[in-house]
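Morning run. Coffee first, then this:
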Amino acid sequence: MSDTNFVYLTKERLVELEKELQDMKTSGRKSIAAKIAEARAHGDLSENAEYDAAKEEQGLFELRISKLESILARARVIDTSQFPQDEVHILSTVLVKNINNQKTFTYLLVSPEEADFQSGKISITSPVGHGLLGKKVGEKVKVKAPAGMLDFEILSIK
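And here it is:
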């Protein structure tokens, strides 16, 4: 298996995903089965929209379980102590200044599976995340993003 098939997670995120999977396989499946049974009790299945909706929900639910199992099977916990502390790497918290508008942003670089832009977690595979990797404080970075060319200066790395 090549390195690109691995999913790099923090220990905390690994525990969260394991708990979510366990909950889905136990109480979640029971809940879906109960919805299907209730819808089935309403009569003719060929004209039962509630039954169709419950079956569709079950399919999406099982798809999520499958995805979680795949992620966990490929998961690798990251030990950041092995990374140089003076350059940007996965799990670095980076304070950058957008040179064009002088606004500052704080990003935590994470794996694609942990990315959540609203909470400041950006993927190392995103244009900005990828552009910041390996850079040091004071360096300027040009990033080609969907919004156009962005210019950043790295102010700090934690």
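The domain at 81-157 is CATH 3.10.50.30 (Chitinase A; domain 3). Good start to the day.
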